[in-house]
Specification:
The protein is 43% helix and 17% strand. The protein is of the alpha+beta class and 451 residues long. Strand 9 (376-378) and strand 10 (381-394) form a beta hairpin. It is globular and about 85 Å long.
Length: 451
């Protein structure tokens, strides 16, 4: 799922890119001897320690080391980060109750993804974590926690989202779908579930303060970091590109009259007050792609055919086609081990260039029509490819239906998970033990629910 209005807490760490050397996400817990911790919050049957909060805050500060002025005052930052930790604890507990698990192999894969995104090997990543005085074991644990939360999210969405053809047809016919795409950023000021009139007034006042700060010259991203209650606040509230039909209907009218750079007044929504910035916009366009027609012969190693023998057999078939001019389709039916094409004489039909993988794509780019490739190897075996044609294909209708299905799924998933988190948070016992970490504005993210 694409990150946007959804309140999904943390992105999987494999998507994280280090802004500078040795600035690592997720937060790695410090190693070595620690002074005695104090408990800063009780979350149902678990606790959050001062050391956890300190390390999480330090990690956020590292991310903004090049421009720390974007961060809110330290007391606000600590409350924001504490809220993330609280929600993470609740989600991990709920996932454990539902039997959600991750294996060491899953975590190894996530570590490799983080390393690759940051242009490191896993060993270099470990060294970078440890050079910061942090525990790599704790780093792995937090990666595992993030994977568990992602799987919880997928479980909630899977059980909640159903998309019909009628919904897709209605969306494709709507004016908002035809209106193109917008790049948005947002600030969300939450109202507690079942909040009182005083809660609503407090949230509205905070939203108006945020609008005033932006009008006074504060950068929108900085204002989001300082004021927003959304889970993407520390990322500046960036929602990325989305089609107009993905924008909540209550905000569409305001956005359609805006120009890039404009910011809306604070607007009341189902969960609180929202401030939107139109970063950019673009009109819909036709989706024309290059397609190729080709056929192939695949020779696979087996118990009866060693890899070297498979290579030699592919070379022999190539020579029979190119030198002896034997029929490609006949040889494919007799020899190819590709279950999807062999009976059709190797015919792959028309397909986008990347449809059969990188190796086939590279060969298509090098061949001319009717030319036969030298045998080349993939994980499947040895291939002989003949390119038969190239065309430009208008796939707008097909792509639009796929996009519409995804847009409806995203919208339903976001709402389903937001409702799930609000229900989970409102029903949890959360006792903030340190007075200065309680949210004086009584937002749901840091309420003291002690009895």
């Amino acid at each position: 799922m694409k990150q946007s209005f959804a309140t999904f807490l943390f992105a999987v760490a494999a998507a994280t890119v280090l802004p500078a050397h040795a600035q690592l996400l997720p937060q790695a817990a410090a190693s070595g001897n620690q002074p005695l911790d104090r408990i800063v919050a009780v979350v149902d049957e678990s606790v959050i320690l001062q050391s956890e909060l300190n390390e999480a805050v330090r990690s956020v500060q590292q991310q903004y080391a090049s421009d720390p002025s974007q961060l809110p005052p330290i007391d606000v930052l600590r409350r924001q980060v504490l809220d993330r930790l609280v929600l993470m604890k609740l989600q991990i507990a709920r996932a454990n109750d539902q039997g959600v698990r991750v294996s060491d192999a899953d975590i190894d894969q996530a570590v490799a993804g983080v390393a690759q995104q940051n242009k490191m090997t896993p060993e270099q990543l470990r060294s970078a974590v440890e050079q910061e005085g942090s525990s790599f074991a704790a780093f792995r644990k937090q990666l595992g926690d993030q994977l568990i939360v992602q799987r919880l999210h997928e479980s909630v969405v899977r059980d909640s989202v159903n998309i019909t053809d009628s919904e897709i047809n209605n969306l494709l016919a709507s004016p908002t779908y035809k209106a193109g795409e917008v790049h948005l950023a947002h600030i969300q000021i939450s109202v507690p579930s079942g909040g009182t009139a005083a809660d609503i007034q407090t949230a509205q006042t905070k939203a108006e303060q945020a609008v005033a700060a932006i009008k006074g010259g504060m950068d929108f991203n900085a204002a989001a970091i300082r004021y927003s209650d959304a889970q993407d606040a520390l990322e500046g509230g960036d929602l990325g590109w989305r089609r107009m039909d993905e924008v909540p209907p209550a905000f569409v009218e305001a956005i359609t009259t805006m120009k890039p750079g404009d910011v809306t007044p604070a607007q009341r929504g189902p969960t609180g007050f929202h401030i939107l910035k139109l970063v950019d916009q673009r009109a819909p366009s036709r989706q024309v792609i290059t397609e190729y027609k080709a056929r192939q012969i695949l020779i696979k190693p087996s118990e009866l055919l060693t890899p070297d023998q498979a290579h030699q057999k592919a070379q022999d078939l190539y020579n029979r086609i190119v030198t002896k001019h034997e029929d490609f389709a006949k040889l494919a039916k007799e020899n190819s081990k590709d279950d999807t094409t062999a009976n059709a004489g190797g015919d792959m039909g028309w397909f986008p260039q990347q449809a059969w993988g990188t190796a086939v794509s590279q060969q298509l780019g090098q061949l001319k029509d009717d030319q036969v490739s030298q045998p080349f190897q993939t994980e499947a075996g040895w291939h002989i490819l003949q390119r038969q044609g190239e065309r430009q294909s208008d796939r707008t209708t097909e792509i639009e239906r796929d996009q519409a299905r995804q847009a409806i799924g995203n919208r339903k998933a976001e709402q389903a998970f937001e409702d799930y988190l609000r229900e989970m948070r409102s029903g949890a016992y959360v006792n903030i033990l340190v007075p200065e970490l309680r949210d004086a504005e009584n937002t749901p993210k840091a309420q003291d629910k002690s009895s």
